[in-house]
Amino acid sequence: MLSVRRFSMCVLRSLRLHLKKIAVILLAVQLLFITVYVQNRHLSITDGNWKSFTTPFFQSPTDTTKNDTYATFDLRSKDSVTRLYDKMNFDTSGEWIDTYTLKNNLLTMKMGSDKGQVLDSVDELRYYDNDPRLVWSVVLDHLLASDSNDYAFSWYDWANFDSLNKLIALKDTNISCQFLCEGAFDKNVMQRVENEVQEPLFVTNRNKYDEPLWYNRARKGFDSNSVQQIVNDHCKSNDAYSNGTPFELPFVISEIYEKLRPEVYDLHARNHLLYSNTTPLSLTVLNSDKDAYRIDLKKTDSSKSNIVQSNLLQDYMQRHRKEMVNGDLIFNHTSIFEKFLRHKSTKKRKLDIAGLDKTIFAKEYLDLSPSDFCFDVKAKIAELETRLRSESLSLHDTCYLQSLQTSIRTAPALQKKYFAEASDVTDATADGHHRDKRFFSIGHNLLNDPQEFEARLSSLIRTFQKFTKANGLISWLSHGTLYGYLYDGLKFPWDVDHDLQMPIKHLHYLSQYFNQSLILEDPREGNGRYLLDVGSSITVRVHGNGENNIDARFIDIDSGIYIDITGLSVSSDAAKQYMSKFVEEEESSEKTFPALIDDYDYDENDNFDEVDGREDLAKYTINELKEWVDSHPDDFTNAESSQVTKTYKKELHISGGDSPEKGLSPKQRYLVNEKYNLYNCRNQHFSSLKILSPLRNTMFNGVSAFVPNRPITSLNNEYKVPPKYGFLTFQGRVYLPEFRYWFSFADMKKFGNLQLREPKITRLESPLNDLKFSDIKLLLTNIVQCDFHSIFASLFNSFDSTIYRLKELEIQYDLRLSEEEKSHLLGMLRHGMSKNIKSPEKDPIIYIYERKLWEHVEKLLNASVLYNIASKVENDKIKAFVELSQKVFERNLESFQLLDRDNNDAVIDLNSKGLNLFGDNKKTSNDIFGSDQKY
């Protein structure tokens, strides 16, 4: 073992490379000094006195190891576990609690008969966890060292394969295709697997398998013949496994079968993803919300090789061998990422797309024009084909051109559904109809852990918004996402996805430059990995057969949760009745919309190419297509004929419906919509230029976002927005403006002790619609005492985001302020606070990592000690929350004292600006959502 002096010198030499990360350095030094000989990993606690204890992450407390390893978490003092609990629940930054090292994290086996053993070499690895710190370090260092433009991508390195690793780790237990092709796991096989890997195969609803009635019902319907048929159709043997190749499974799921329980489908779909022939076209790496960089991916036979199989990891270790201490090595991914950003080769990767303006988020308003909602497909195809003849196109341009060429030759009524959801998963709680079938996974405990679920949804929208800002792409919040924003700057807690709209021109930018790119969040801020997937028929802008209402999705590759993205454009779909009033308003005419249509002089020479360059059946109207299909029945399948008939009936409904454009031909509808700036998505949600433009710059989920100019009007076209801002109930939820939060009413009854069933907590005496300031502390204390820890964590972490929205509302709807004053104050608010708003939720990967570490701690320490630790942390947070809330009520919050950039950086106190929603106005009717306000 190295002497302390010599050891310190080695550490210091290694750390000179990372001077910009002082906090990380201090932690790394502390961890490197803790080099121990761990023999017996029991911890005894008597009367609060703790004995020294150090263990590698996830090593069983009864394991013994004769190897020196760097500890990733030190339990020698209460401070260590206190720090973990605090960080796990109340720190939403992208920082990790420990340091990733070669020995402890990568070479120490976490499962199976080898659990706790430390391998001598990475060449002995049969599986590993794809920790972002490892993968980022190795891949970026490879790109810098080789000055290469690309690298061979492997799903194994970028998607989560924790569940599949348990099968890969098996040595003695044989599993076959049948194990992943039955409705529920064979319990006997599952128990053998769990006995060998020494941990549950899955966590979510694992106890159900111990209930005979449930188990028999779950297995019902999968007799030997049906299972064998599923195996024959969906699974095949893997020759690589037979040859002893590491990282392999004995079988390959060749095609996904959906009608399985979530835990079975998880492994089934993960196997298919691992062996999928489909990989992204590129990686798009974000530098926060400032810039984006493109890393092209090789398309070779070895494209599925992970960083061990491709020797990237071995090469990394060779380049950094001088940094090794006692045979160990730190993977400092953020330091390498910052080096990557500064490197000359990175400048070549920077994306600056002609036609996009990265400064749009610096403005308070963004004016849209009619040209944003039209796109000349014919001209774009001609441009790309000309370039193809004279030069080589990039892979993205080539795929985009092929997509356009295919799309224009497909009749809307004959389009096949592009996006596929895991809607046949046999458990309604899995929300399979809101998950992409390729990436569906239950994660660590996603179905039963609301914190993980909310963390994923938050990371999803935050990364997308940073992605659009970094590239100058225009999109805005829509549908339920816009509705949720209205109250507290967050989504509704019952929403399981996000909805965004964008003009058709920017949908094409998205398709051309980012379709099939894996978008990677700045690793200093989080670990989001999302596939941008654009449908194959974006040139079609009508409803058609209704199978492709969504244009694009931003998909979390670790869960299948997504953002729905729809493009708005001029189309020949019939405008909805609710659009009449907006046309009449904008025309400043006494004539009704139908009268304006009657007066419209249709020019038969007007060019109508809704889908430019249409060929074959795509050139027909639905009436003509129906005639053709009826006269050529042998040329179409029954399904195709049915789709055409379905679409034809919809057209008949339009001609006799309540649309102001009923009776018009598709061409005439297109020209009317174009004339009056009426735009729609393929799901027939209509809007107008005046409703949308200018877009308003705001903050959503703590990051920059756009909302329509008239959000109330936009929402009232779909929903009925209650005019009052204040106490509100909806479908079992109650909105308390004092907390800026939606609570389950059933939960509120418990921690309010409204039914006097909780003898240990104080009853809330105030009515919910008229809370006193003193009630805040009472309710927070009760929330924690009733074990609603995730609710309190969400309340605390979302304070910045919701208090920003509160002040925004107070300014926007204050009738005493002029439009100029509102604009000025809102600009101050956004520029002064936007960079200081913490994420309302944790990064999901860091959350799961810390949650697993806490579960390990729970096995080591007695419950009373952990209770005291949690109580101490939460009581401190309650005190902080109450103090901040008091400053909000008293209108002296420091966060609202901001510099006025237009007045020589004078300090302006926004506390006193705008409505006082918690003062005298609280007792009056705050009908601020009764109509849109100009600002």
From TrEMBL:
One of its GO terms (biological process) is glycoprotein metabolic process. InterPro entries: FKTN/MNN4/W02B3.4-1, LicD/FKTN/FKRP_NTP_transf. It is found in: Membrane. Keywords: Membrane, Transmembrane, Transmembrane helix. GO terms for cellular component: membrane. Its main location: membrane. It holds the Pfam family LicD. The keyword Membrane applies. This is YJR061W-like protein. It is a single-pass membrane protein. It comes from Saccharomyces kudriavzevii (strain ATCC MYA-4449 / AS 2.2408 / CBS 8840 / NBRC 1802 / NCYC 2889) (Yeast).
